[in-house]
Write the structure tokens for this entry.
Amino acid sequence: MMTHPNFDQLKDRLAGIVPEFELEAKFELAREILELKREKNAVILGHNYMEPALFHTIPDHVGDSLELSRVAARTDAEIIVFCGVKFMAETAKILNPGKTVLLPSTKAGCSLAASITAEDVRRLKERFPGVPVVTYVNTYADVKAESDVCCTSSNAVAVVESLASDTVIFLPDEYLARNVARETGKRIIFPTLDEGAPGELGYEMIGWHGRCEVHERYTVQDIEDVRRMFPDVVILSHPECSPEVVEASDFAGSTTAMIRYVEKTSAPRYLLLTECSMGDNVMAAYPDKEFLRLCTVRCPHMNQITLEDTLSALKLGRHVIEVPEDVRVRAATALERMIAIGPSGKRD
């Protein structure tokens, strides 16, 4: 549970990250949101990629997709306001069909989620009959409904290893799939939908060519350039980065895993190769540690979620997330299996 600071605390925490004149206006918006939240019996969930003034003021819970899915599954609030992107709000609705779920902006989509459709999944299942489908949580509800189990970046390996199958279909993030394949020792292929099934190649994982438009931009050259300037830097990358970037990093993990790594280690300085607002949020949370502010890639979809739109969402009851019941029921099964497995592979 987040504790909401007063203005002086917020100013100290975000000094050098958010200008004071901007913070004053945002703090007043946050106060109004918190009052409305109490009146309406709402809970606010904030993803780690939210901009700092929002992240450090209004959410009741912050975290990565897996953590927020767990919170959404057990909340008693009547209204869930999801400060994240559409597939996250859909996940909350799937797990809470009787709750009202609000997404502050209809423009908060996801390039990765948009890279695959339910029809794509059905066609893959026809080509590889009987092979279980693992679907990354960064997908829309109808795609989840076609899968056997969902996963997040924090438990993808655990989910794959939990299946009683030598072969899996892993969708849709190409780089996460390659990283999971490397960690689990599986040979991966990326067939196009109009190729014949390449059974003679000997494969254990079937992937898809989706990518996150943020994480695909980081390169090994970026890492080499930073290390030349700061040889003692510890570099952390997200598993949606390419396998080459992950291999060249000192640590790779989900957003929560990166935060825990920073918390538990002592390094001269850190660099997080992920969405840049998260870097600012971690910097604000650990003022005694030094971070390089060389991460400049902002997710254009996460950036759509603002304090102004969050206030409007609560005031006007918009934008309501709906999922067709037949889709919701099937997607819920895949999500509940993911939540039960947890990040370590041990079922709750």
